[in-house]
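Posting this for the archive.
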Amino acid sequence: MSNSPATIEDVARIAEVSIATVSRAIHLPEKVAQSTRLKVNQAIAITGYTPNAMARSLRLGKSNMILVVAPDIGDPNFSSILVGLENEARAHGYGVLIGHTQNDAQRGMEYLKFFSSNQAAGMILFTGILPFGHQSMTARLPPTVGVFEPVFNGGIPYVGVDDLEGARKAVELLIAEGHRKIAFIGENRSRLAYARRRLGCEAGLDAAGIPAASRIVMDGDGTIESGRLAVDQLFLRDTLPTAFMCVNDQTAIGVMLGLTARGYDVPRDFSVTGFDDVPQASFMQPSLTTIRQPRGLIGKHAMTLLLQLLSDTEPTETEILLRPDLVVRNSVGPPPRR
């Protein structure tokens, strides 16, 4: 029995199609009939054939790999955006490399070596900052698009959700339920997405005529622990809102856990909203009212924009903000009568 790796010819023979059709099914699947794609995919599974993206890059004299740099691949938002990125890249003959910085700014510099060695053509940034030391690593920054978090220090094209609109939808729901003393949890000047959500919250409060004395703002870094800490600090101050508008779902989960630990009921005693609609949001008790990001579409649009940059096409937009959806569940109700 031969131990040699499967070839594209093996796939074509089993699928009973031409080699050109196999190539199109792999690199341009939208141009191949679904029944043909199914036969090719089954043949690939049988043979164990793996398209050699690096070899193809050498033949073409350029890389067809996209570097995706993320601070935390465990973030619930990452995988859904990655699916949109990868599907769009694959449809145009590109592959994806993942660089995990583990929230270490200097690790990003290591991944820039992919560009100096011509192993990657462009970059998708989840980090919100340019890789540390990029000026010394490359003559110029490769084509780059930011997603999920606007890039703080670089005028980089960005694709994400409309944070202002999403936050305003959340605070308008709380106001409609009768809340007038609302705490925003997650003030963070180093995160542009969080800053935009704060602005959206303020815009909603302004429109409703909520006075400044009824507004509470607490710092946070988007973690569950920061939500717990905000609850503890508010009880120590004895300055309590009737509703918590949280900068993301992780913060909201922390707030709910902190309130529950003190014996309070959500939403009977306090209402809580989040932002993102991560999978855990629907499984909380009570389930979390939140703002849903269209994560798959964010990935698709970001990769489309990056491919335009790679083809030297002038993009029609340098910031694409997709509309968020308000997802009403069970964590919001009217304020209690105290």
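The chain has three domains: 8-51, 59-160+295-322, 163-293. The domain at 59-160+295-322 is CATH 3.40.50.2300 (Rossmann fold).
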